[in-house]
Design a protein that fits this description.
single chain; 184 residues; mainly alpha; two-stranded antiparallel ribbon; 6 helices; 2 strands; binds zinc ion
Amino acid sequence: MSIRVNQYEFDCAKCKVHLVLLDYDMKCPNCNHKFTTLPRDKRLFKEHAISTMMYYKEQHNMYRPLGFSIGSRGDMMLSATYDFFDFLEQQNPDDDIKFFDEYIASFKIENKKSEYLRKHYKEAILPVLQIYKNEGFEKYLKKIRDNQPAKKEEKVPDIAQLDREKLKKRFEKLREKYLKETEN
Ligand SMILES: [Zn+2]
């Protein structure tokens, strides 16, 4: 089973290519335009990647979940990340970075116009690899969770209360109708 994550995706204001949020002050991998207004309350790709990877790994010992469906550029990027880390742990190479460069180089890009995707993927997955090698996923996730303000508890109206509100509204409508009728 895979969980749905909604990633923040946007188009470059200058060259219009479709991108995934990697960093709040990232540059366009195609035209080098520097973004300055990316929403800071949206989670970055690496956070989505690491939190889902930890979850899947615990569930079935693989980063790539079974039946992972791809519906967006962000999903494609996650998919490439899961594959890379499963491959990395399976191959256990001496040089992780060299292994990563080879992985990125192996991507088949359909046309020259889309070559920026290679750079986009590289800039997406490399920070995840650095976290993996340095502090580790678990520590990283704990750090994000600790830095995030606790979510405000949503108030869920209880059903009895809801029904009373409904009845009250219905009663008020009937009363209005009654008053109008008696006025005439
Ligand atoms: Zn651009």
